[in-house]
Structures are given as structure tokens and as C-alpha cells.
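Input.
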Amino acid sequence: MSNRAAAVKRLCEKGVVAVVRAASSGQLVDVVRALLAGGVECVEITMTTPNALQVIRDCRSAVPEAMIGVGSVLDEGTAQAAIAAGAQFVVSPVFCPQVVGAAHEADLPVVPGAMTPTEILTAHQAGADIVKVFPGGQFGPSYFRDILAPMPHLKLSPTGGVDLTTAADWIAAGAVTLGIGSALVTRSALASGKVNEITDLARQYVRIVDEARAAKKK
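Output.
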């Protein structure tokens, strides 16, 4: 199995990718540790986070058990810089062929964003390992059912519109993993420094995904 294939498997395994979009980079190593303690291994550090590249370096060094990726990547140069900093997967809110190429050149997974059926299929055909349907909250889980009915081979992940009340529905609708931002890494936990709250939420999401996947197999 290639490094990229193994990484895609790991992204899907727990069913949760934490999306970290923070106003400060000061405590993000602790946030990654808190997520890992709750069972969430895959963490996307968005490029909108201050000093995002250094945060990726710090998290890779301090928490090697976690899988640290980069998000909000809009161009090839940013993808390359993040990969050089240690990013293990690349996520974008849009489909950019050059970003796909930069990730694959490094043998890493890429998760570009798309919304319409045509955009989703175009991203898949261009090599997307998983397609991030964004903003997912605009249509909800039923949209995944509609897309996957004629194209069941697609690997789809929602970002936006995922919380404790909808997570099971997204999995039931066919999501291979969930991108969860402020509903997991909450603004209140970041502001207060109470990262144990993030650990508790991570455990809840992992449990919900496990139960939803088990229910699908029945």
C-alpha cells in the first residue's frame, strides 16, 4: 500500500477530521493532544490560522501520533509550503488542479472542495482522494444520498453543517468521514483554555460515527 493510500485509509478510519480554525496559534498543540485523547487522530490546521505553517511543524513534532494536515489551501505554492512544513494531507475549499498535483507529487492525499455533481465528479476524475462537499450545511445529508445514487464510487466528506445532531445522518447518507470545525474545536474551549471540553466532544463524535456505521451494516 502506498503512503497516500494508507493515509486515505487513516483519514476515513475514525470518521472524524477536526478542522482547526483559530484566532491564535498559542495553544494548538494542546488542542491536538486533547483531540487525540478523545480518539480523533486527524487534524486539519487551516491556513487562516495565524502562523499556520509553524503550527503544523510544532504539532508534528510534539504530537507525532496525530495526523496533521493543512486546510484552506488555494494554490500550489501554499500546498508545497505546507507539505514542506510537515502536512500529511491537503484540504481545499475549492478544486484547483495544481493543488491536487502538489499533494500527489508528495504522495499525500488531497481533499478538494466541490458542491455541484459536475464539480464533484470533475474533482474525483482529476485525482481527488476524497471530495469535500462544501458548504455541506447548504443541502444536508440528503444531498449525499442523491449524489451517491448514480455515483456510488465517490468518497465524499461534508464540511459545514456537521454537529452532534447531524453527524449520524451524514454517515448514514454515505459520508466516508466528517470534517468538523467549531462544533468540535469550540470557540469557548479555545477562549477559556479548557481543552478537556474538546476531548469530551471528540469522544462523542467518535462514538456517534461508530454507532452510525454499525447501524448501516445491519
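The chain has one domain: 3-217.
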